[in-house]
Amino acid sequence: LMRRQFNDDARLRWFIGDVRDAQRLELAMERVEWVIHAAALKRIEVGAYNPGEMVKTNVIGSQNVIEAARRQKVAKVLLISSDKAFEPVSPYGQTKALAESLFLTANDIYPHGPRFSIVRYGNVFNSTGSLVPTWKGLIAAGAIAVPVTNPDCTRFFMRLGEAVELVLGTLATMKGGEVEVPALPAYRVADMAAAFDMPMQVGVMPKWEKAHESMADG
Questions:
Q1: 73 is a catalytic site residue
Q2: Closest by alpha carbon to 154, among 207, 195, 192, 182?
Q3: How far is CA 165 from CA 34, 77, 130, in A?
């Protein structure tokens, strides 16, 4: 689909592969100057029961990206991280925090390049697997209430265009070692349920979920 959307542009190469496959990554980065590393296993509840798989993709996969970029002499590599990486309580957050550490340390290990930086932000509003499309699916299926673990939970609000601007802006200006964290508004889950005009079915908050996400000290 994406290939058709770009009209099979000859300037683009199309690969399937996995960040767990170091050789495939190295091939994909041939003649590449900038890399955006967005690959991750990110479903928190899935990672809670499969932490080893999270490690293979989010940690070892990130190390593979670093090494492939070094071997192919990439100039800049930017990691897309998550608010879950700050003071993490879940395997997803813990593995993203480790990925951040790998990227920051790579600047010291390889002082002659590539340069490695990070952007950290919350879920993009209405993105796949996030609260809004999940609720929409349940309502379309006939649900009479939306599931909520804590009505006072807060979540960051960020539009897709804002995320794209943050990533591309950081990539253009980065010197290596930055952790770019945007200032974002947040909303209460109960207020979102009210906007949907739906009653809430309140459950038990799992240990891997925070009531209030944060992205940096202060």
A1: no
A2: 192
A3: 16, 16, 20
| Token pair 């290939």 in the structure block, residue | 3
**pLDDT of 218 over the 70 cut:** no
Task: Provide the 8-state DSSP code for 184.
Answer: -
End-to-end CA distance of the chain: 42
Q: Give me the catalytic one of 42, 56, 73, 84.
A: 84
pLDDT tens digit sequence for 137-189? 999 999 899 989 889 998 889 999 999 999 999 999 999 999 999 999 999 99
Structure tokens at 60: 């070892």
Which position has the token pair 């960020």?
158
Task: Tell me the per-residue pLDDT of 79-113, one tens digit each, with 9 for 90 and over.
Answer: 999 999 999 999 999 999 999 999 999 999 999 99
How many angstroms separate the CA atoms of 93 and 187, rounded?
21
What span, in angstroms and rounded, lies between the C-alpha atoms of 58 and 113?
22
Q: Are strands 179-180 and 146-148 parallel, antiparallel or unpaired?
A: unpaired
For residues 44 and 54, what is the distance between their CA atoms, to the nearest angstrom?
Answer: 10
Whole-prediction pTM: 0.90
